[in-house]
Amino acid sequence: MRSAMAQQATAGRRCLRAFVSGFFVAVPVTVTFLDRFAYVARVEGSSMQPFLNPEGGSKCDVVLLNRWSVRNYQVQRGDIVSVVSPRNPKQKIIKRVIGLEGDFIRTLGYKNRYVRVPDGHFWIEGDHHGHSLDSNSFGPVSVGLLHGRASHIIWPPNRWQRITPSLPANRGPLDTEEEED
Description:
Subcellular location: Mitochondrion inner membrane
Radius of gyration: 23 Å
Enzyme class: hydrolase
Low-confidence stretches: 176-181
Distance between the termini: 90 Å
Keywords: Hydrolase, Membrane, Mitochondrion, Mitochondrion inner membrane, Protease, Transmembrane, Transmembrane helix
Number of strands: 10
Structural class: alpha+beta
Mean pLDDT: 84
Largest sheet: 8 strands, antiparallel
Shape: elongated
Subunit structure: Heterodimer of 2 subunits, IMMPL1 and IMMPL2.
Number of helices: 3
Order of helices and strands: HEEEEEEEHEEEH
GO molecular function: serine-type endopeptidase activity
């Protein structure tokens, strides 16, 4: 009887050891994955309506933020990005890229009517103007604050979709708008 109990105890210890060693491998791998490749984020508020959170209220979209795609700070006009807020470094905000370095932007209430986006910066705006704390409030944003690019809406299930870059009507750099006319 004692040998059966001893065998069970030994087997239990082996299982526990395997679990603990697996845990210590899985946690660093998961943290590395989330830090380098991608993670999910809940989009709260109305600043990106109607594209994100179209129903408003307590229903929030959840997006997949691709960190790998922005590792070299490469974004394009129309991308929806997550950045560290220039106003509150503890907060991340999700906005659309309107202009890149060197672009001339017609602002929507910034201190200057027109702004040239400086090197190493981009211009971001929420889709719901007037309900968004964005570059029209704090100016061009340093690419160093870039955290990820939203690549997919993953929740709720009825809104599953890939996010493709697009600019709202009448937004974007002035020279691009003039070329389209």
